[in-house]
Design brief:
Chain lengths: 161, 641
């Protein structure tokens, strides 16, 4: 084991968690939506600053709040990727509350916020929507065209070691 | 709990147990769901899920358990959904981990469908709501736009009633005076009335031009030329007019084009003049005392692309912040108090803004009430590699042309023929296309000037007829066409018919002459003077330049007086010295036209040849000098501090 890290993907259903993992691990994308139930585990080895890290990614079924997700899923997580869908305000309206309760539950666990489906916005909409998101520091991603997906996972990996 | 108990409790076909030590080494299992192959390695190393919870398992207290529902499992030959429970147990006095896998694939597969339906319908609803909200927003925007449209419509109506008033007043004036002219033939009164008619018509023409420009802009019919021109002569020509107008009001008008502005740029000279003219008139209108300056400099330059920045600054009444925001709005201005007090259509600034915008430029205004206003605009041009366009002044062209004029409007006919006569050309004039065709059959012409709109057979039909029915010789005669509306479509039409030049109405004699010169004479325009050398020599010191011009103006007539006396006395040696003495003066003032004659004069005086021609040469040198002095008198005003 040694350098294995448990990374969980949280966020509302349909925001693109599974798509992000598929893009990151297999470089694949599908427009069809197949919801995830429970959790699916994938593994990817990454080198961070010359150090090998084995990321064990927990792609958790989306829920409107992480409270609805079994505690054991979150237990022992080393990092969290919290995904929102830029097109659906319902996926980020309560993100502040979500993040702060996660921080209470898992103190000192790094959280990377990902704003996904950025490919669906025009440049103008992108600026307007991103400026109006609660909190800042989102990694703007598209699981569809792959932009910034690697960056999002790398950003988390870097804070894991 | 004992393993035996687990066995008896759970051993069913949908359950598997795996017993391992705390380091993940497999100890015992039943093979209900899958079986581990022989020499299967450490479970933590082999199974990522276990790897990721190894710390959790290590932290688990003896007798405690941790459960993971609904795991999507792909393990060895098993694929499905399981619930996992991990127990920390004591087994033969050793701490062991018991992993129970319960296969609930059927149940969870059924759940997937339900969850999928739930999620999809929620997402659908959300997206629908967003669409609805957007539709409402779009509706509100539309409502706003409609209201704005109504507001503009109202202003437009007010504007047109005002404009028609503005037009009717001078027309009535002109009619009245014309009536008086009929009755009164006393030369002094006629002169006075003619002056009034001239001024009133000029005013009327500005209003009509503004309205026409506006309608062209609004219907997007405006087009821009791309011809290389000398920006300095445009600036000095426009400024010269305002120097005089300013003087009448006691306002100083100065202009400055920075040295690094290239001599020739490619663009629409007429539109640039129009913009400058409008802005300077605006400044002059609102300035009671002080000065108005026009500053032209390079804004940016990249390769042969240049942006030129024009700044027009006045010390006038200024504009309040509230009005500043609406200053470029077309119909607002027309109804505002300012136009009531200061006259005009109030369209000027809107037209200026649009003319600049459509040349990919931008305009800004800064103002402080009672302090003054500064308009700054930037327009991109190309730096020209070409020679200056060939423009001529009326002293330099050959006068043997015979021109056929087709124009029906008696006034325009009069203007055209008067100027043609004044320039020394011959002409025959007819008032429609039939006349043109007939005349062309009867005698030879060097040039045809046609009006587009004529009764019976208009300019276009005439040309089409000519091109279809006449031979090469007649079709080689250059054609200049006048039209009231000049747009790209018309230009294209006439270019196809091989028209040499299409000019806008009202007729501008100077432009017509330039065009004729361009067609027949390839003489480049030689300006009367050019102060570049003087500016360079004095480092742009205004006072010095002013004094240099002044000295030239006052001393040169005396010098000619002297030279003529010497010539009369036959003292050619002294005359040679005198010519030699004045030569640098011409150089300082950049009077290039004089250069050749000066050289010839010097040569003749040195060699003693061509004595008979000396008086003619000195006379033409004097004429050139006098023409330059006339213009330098105006220019001098630009160089007062
Ligand atoms: N255009 C676009 N569509 C995306 C992107 N990411 C995901 N999708 C689409 O969004 C839908 C949901 O994607 P999933 O990856 O299944 O979302 P999820 O977060 O895993 O959803 P749950 O498993 O239900 O929580 C699918 O139809 C994807 O094709 C993206 O970056 N751009
Ligand atoms: Mg999913």
């Amino acid at each position: 084991m040694g350098n294995s890290k448990k990374v969980i993907l949280l966020g509302n259903f349909g925001v693109g968690k599974t798509s992000l993992v598929r893009q990151y691990v297999f470089r694949k994308f599908s427009d069809d939506y197949m919801t995830t139930i429970g959790v699916r585990i994938d593994k990817k080895m990454v080198a961070v600053n010359g150090q090998e890290v084995s990321m064990i990614i927990w792609d958790v079924a989306g829920e409107s709040t992480h409270q609805k997700i079994p505690n054991s899923y979150k237990l022992g997580a080393h990092g969290i990727i919290y995904v929102i869908d830029v097109l659906r305000p319902s996926t980020y309206l309560s993100i502040e509350k979500e993040i702060s309760s996660l921080e209470d539950l898992l103190p000192n666990v790094p959280i990377v916020k990902v704003a996904n489906k950025i490919d669906l916005l025009t440049e103008k909409e992108r600026i307007e929507i991103v400026n109006n998101l609660p909190l800042n520091d989102y990694v703007l991603c598209s699981a569809k065209n792959g932009s910034n997906v690697e960056d999002a996972f790398n950003k988390l990996a870097e804070s894991l070691i | 709990m004992k393993l035996q108990d687990f066995k008896s409790k759970f051993l069913q076909s949908w359950v598997q147990f795996v017993l391992m030590d705390e380091k993940g080494n497999l100890m015992e299992t039943c093979n209900t769901l899958f079986s581990f192959p022989e020499n299967y390695g450490n479970l933590f190393d082999e199974i990522p899920f276990l790897d990721s919870i190894s710390q959790t398992l290590a932290d688990l207290k003896l007798g405690a358990e941790v459960a993971y529902p609904c795991i999507n499992v792909e393990l060895l030959d098993f694929k499905g959904f399981c619930d996992y429970v991990f127990y920390k147990i004591d087994y033969n006095n050793q701490h062991r981990i018991l992993w129970i896998l319960m296969n609930f694939s059927d149940h969870y597969t059924h759940l997937i469908d339900l969850q999928q339906q739930r999620n999809e319908s929620v997402i659908q609803k959300e997206l629908l709501e967003i669409e609805k909200k957007n539709a409402i927003l779009a509706g509100e925007l539309l409502k706003y736009k409609n209201e704005e449209l109504k507001r503009i419509q109202k202003l437009k109506t007010a504007f047109f009633s005002k404009v028609s008033h503005e037009i009717r007043t001078p027309i009535n004036g002109i009619l009245g005076i014309a009536q008086l002219l009929r009755e009164n033939k006393d030369p002094e009164t006629v002169e006075e009335y003619a002056g009034i008619i001239f001024e009133t018509s000029k005013h009327l023409s500005t209003i009509v031009n503004d309205v026409l420009d506006l309608s062209k802009i609004e219907s997007d019919k405006i087009s821009f030329e791309k011809i290389s021109f000398d920006i300095r002569s445009v600036v000095s020509a426009v400024t010269a007019a305002f120097v005089y107008l300013g003087k009448e009001k006691g306002i100083q008008v100065i202009s400055n084009v920075w040295d690094n502005v290239p001599k020739l740029i490619v663009g629409d000279q007429v539109r640039i003049s129009q913009i400058l003219y409008n802005l300077l008139s605006n400044s002059l209108k609102f300035t009671k005392e002080g000065k108005i300056s026009l500053d032209v400099q390079v804004h940016s330059i990249q390769g042969d692309q240049i942006e030129i920045r024009f700044e027009i600054k006045d010390t006038g009444i200024g504009i309040s912040a509230e009005n500043l925001a609406r200053i470029f709005e077309p119909y607002e201005q027309a109804t505002a108090d300012t136009t009531r007090n200061y006259g005009g259509t109030g369209l000027g600034l809107h037209i200026v803004q649009q003319l600049i915008k459509r040349q990919n430029g931008s305009i800004d205004v800064a103002s402080e009430p009672d302090k003054g206003t500064t308009f700054t605009f930037v327009i991109p041009f190309e730096i020209s590699a070409a020679e200056p366009s060939k423009v001529t002044d009326d002293t330099s062209i050959n006068r043997n042309l015979k021109i056929l004029v087709g124009e029906d409007n008696p006034l325009n006919q009069k203007i055209l023929t008067e100027f043609i006569k004044k320039w020394g050309f011959r002409h025959e004039t007819v008032d429609n296309g039939h006349g043109v065709i007939t005349k062309l059959g009867q005698s030879a012409f060097d040039l045809i000037i046609l009006d587009y709109k004529m009764p019976e057979m208009d300019g276009l039909e005439t040309l089409q007829f000519m091109r279809a029915n006449f031979g090469e010789e007649i079709n080689a005669i250059p054609v200049i066409l006048f039209t009231g509306e000049l747009d790209q479509a018309i230009l294209d039409k006439f270019n196809k018919l091989n028209v040499r030049s299409v000019l806008n109405k009202p007729i501008e004699p100077k432009l017509l002459l330039d065009t004729i010169a361009k067609i027949f004479y390839n003489e480049p325009r030689v300006s009367h003077f050019d102060l570049h050398y003087a500016i360079e020599m004095t480092d742009g010191n205004k006072m010095l330049i002013h004094d240099m011009i002044d000295i030239f103006i006052t001393t040169m007539p005396e010098e000619f007086q002297k030279m003529k006396e010497l010539l009369a006395h036959g003292d050619l040696a002294a005359l040679r010295k005198a010519v030699h003495k004045v030569k640098p003066n011409f150089h300082y003032m950049g009077i290039r036209k004089a250069r050749k004659i000066l050289d010839l004069l010097e040569k003749d005086l040195d060699s003693g040849k061509h004595k008979a021609q000396l008086p003619t040469k000195i006379n033409s040198l004097q004429q050139i000098t006098e023409a330059a002095i006339e213009r330098l008198k105006v220019e001098k005003l630009n160089w007062v501090n």
